[in-house]
From TrEMBL:
Domain of life from the UniProt record: Bacteria
Species assigned in the record: Hymenobacter sedentarius
Protein name: Uncharacterized protein
Taxonomic placement: Bacteria, Pseudomonadati, Bacteroidota, Cytophagia, Cytophagales
């Protein structure tokens, strides 16, 4: 999935995927999940950051 296998081992995995439909389906599901997760937002929305900062300021005001 992350292209980290040595070529010899990769050939073995590809061979297994060709001959094991259940393994191929599981691999396809994992690849789809990987693509979906890669497309997700990796930072909070500006509104979320602002809400956290507003909340943290309540502690500074009480000091």
């Amino acid at each position: 999935m992350y292209n980290e296998l040595p070529a010899k081992e990769l050939l073995g995995v590809e061979e297994a995927l060709l001959h094991d439909p259940e393994l191929a389906t599981a691999c396809a599901d994992l690849l789809l999940a990987q693509r979906t997760l890669d497309g997700l937002r990796r930072e909070p929305r500006a509104e979320t950051t602002e809400a956290i900062l507003r909340y943290s300021r309540t502690f500074l005001a009480g000091s």
